[in-house]
Give the backbone structure.
Amino acid sequence: MLQMLLIDGESARAERLRAAFSPFFRLVVVSEIRLGEILLADAGFDAVLLCGGTAQEAAALLGRGMAILTLDGSGETPPGVYPLAGEEPGEISAAARHVTAARAMLTGLSRERAALQKKLDDLKLLNRAKALLCRTLGFTEARAHKYIEEQAMSGRISKTEAARRIIATYEN
């Protein structure tokens, strides 16, 4: 079950929303956006429902890896913020689907980012090993690349591991 932070200063409405959203989310209700921001720093919320907040407050919550929903927001909502038209069951169900889809997309993007970061780190390591081979053994870049490949194949290890071993051997 997804976890949602509900920020609403109106206790009666907060209780209505708690009842409406509870089939879809584990809810934590706070009355002020400042308290919400404190909670967001520590807890793993999937979504935030901001009631009566401004577009600026909603935008400030973006970029934290969660879906942002607004109710009774003033002005236009920034991109990435899902405005709720009301508290009807159909609207709440649609919001739950939106949050679930947004969470899945964010999780996928997070995994993709981690995979790309690992590739980048591996390339940096390979380039560092090649530069070290060029500097210490006088290899050309092409020869250094081939040497790393040969070390990896002969040792039955990855090129990244071969690069680590070369760095450990030739650096200081």
In short: The beta strands are 2-7, 25-30, 47-51, 67-71, 81-84.
